[in-house]
Amino acid sequence: MLDFDEQTLIEESKKHCEEFLQKEQRSLATFTGDSSLMYIPDSKLQKFILDPSKGVLYLPLESFLDRKLDSNQIMWHIYYELALYPDWKKQTKKYLNRKKDWQKEIDHMTSYIMTRIKKEGLENDPAYQPKIISNYVRKEIFDLLHLLDKQTSFLRVLQMCPIYRDEENFGKIVSYMKQTGKTIESISQMPRHRAFANSFLIIELYKIKPKIEGCVENLFDRKIFNQPFFEFIHYQLVKQINNDKGIIERDPFIRSFIFPTFEQLWKQEIDEMVFYKSKGQKEEQVKGSENPFEQSKSDEIPNSLESTQEEVEKILEEMLDQQDQISTSIQNTMQGKVDLEPYGISQADQQLFQFYSNKMKSEREQMRQFWKKLIGDAKKEISVKKDGQIKGKLDVDSFINFYPDFV
Question: How do the domains of the chain map onto residue ranges?
Answer without folding.
Answer: 4-73, 83-294+307-323, 349-406
